[in-house]
Amino acid sequence: MLSWLFDSKKEKEADLSQLGIDIHSHIIPGIDDGVETIEEAVAMVQKMQALGYQRIVTTPHVMWDCYKNTPEIILSGLQDVREAALAAGLTIQIDAAAEYFIDEHFMELLNTQQQFLTLPGNRLLVELPYSTPLMNTSETLFSIIAQGYQPVLAHPERYTYFHADPSVYKKLADQGCELQVNILSLTTHYGENVHKMAEWLLKNELISYIGTDAHKIQHLELIHRSIRNKYFSRYPFQNFNLIHA
């Protein structure tokens, strides 16, 4: 399944220009578990430009137990990264949204109609717990839609509690939730089970977007080495539709 994804005989470097935009990364230093310094951030931006991206919408975590990021914190950090990238001679467009962990704080923000940082097209990138499923996932996604946002579920292939009944992914998509797979899930970087689920989701055409979810330069270097160019012309990812949105 998807045997054309990798070339075991000849290593090919990735060209992600067909995607145009990356909608999931962690390149604002010091505010989550992504890069720690501005130098690391610039190296990440440089590598993403070399991979062919024309635009980055980076997405720091908003997870109230760990990362109490606000729009002000994120946009201030974004400006620092923009200025450093420009000083380094980089031309790629850099914007910011956020990756919102669905917790009590998120629901409070949603219910009180607070400001969210969104992906193009008023899309709200959200993530679920890794170990225990939410009891009301469908209701929460409906609430997001009711507030006028388009929910995008980050890396659904990594929620292993869904693997026993993958039909849940189709239910989420049918309810109006777009799904975003991580590029490195197409390798065994997160483990074989995650890799198999990513392939299943692609085979069943349930994925709308693909993102790097890069937290450090090593993630981008692994993508550069291990992903075949041919792959990105064979699946109808919708990334490029967002590049000018």
From TrEMBL:
It is an enzyme of class 3 (hydrolase). The keyword Disulfide bond does not apply. Keywords: Hydrolase. Its EC number is 3.1.3.48. The keyword Hydrolase applies. InterPro entries: Caps_polysacc_synth_CpsB/CapC (IPR016667), Pol/histidinol_Pase-like (IPR016195). It catalyses: O-phospho-L-tyrosyl-[protein] + H2O = L-tyrosyl-[protein] + phosphate. Signal peptide: none annotated. SUPFAM superfamilies: PHP domain-like (SSF89550). It comes from the Bacteria. Belongs to the metallo-dependent hydrolases superfamily. CpsB/CapC family. This is protein-tyrosine-phosphatase.
